[in-house]
Amino acid sequence: MRDQVQDTSTAPAQRTVRSSMELAPESVPALLGSSDENLRVLESILDGDIHVRGNSFTFTGAPADVALAERVVSELAGIVGGGRPLSTDAVRRTVSMLTQGVNESPAAVLSLDILSRRGKTIRPKTLNQKRYVDAIDANTIIFGVGPAGTGKTYLAMAKAVQALQSKQVSRIILTRPAVEAGERLGFLPGTLHEKIDPYLRPLHDALHDMMDADSIPKLMQAGVIEVAPLAYMRGRTLNDAFIILDEAQNTTAEQMKMFLTRLGFGSKVVVTGDITQVDLPGGARSGLRAATEILGDIDGIHFAHLDSSDVVRHRLVSDIVDAYERHETARHETARHETARQDTQTVGGNRAERRAAGSRSPRR
Question: Where are the domains of the chain?
Answer without folding.
Answer: 2-110, 126-313, 315-357
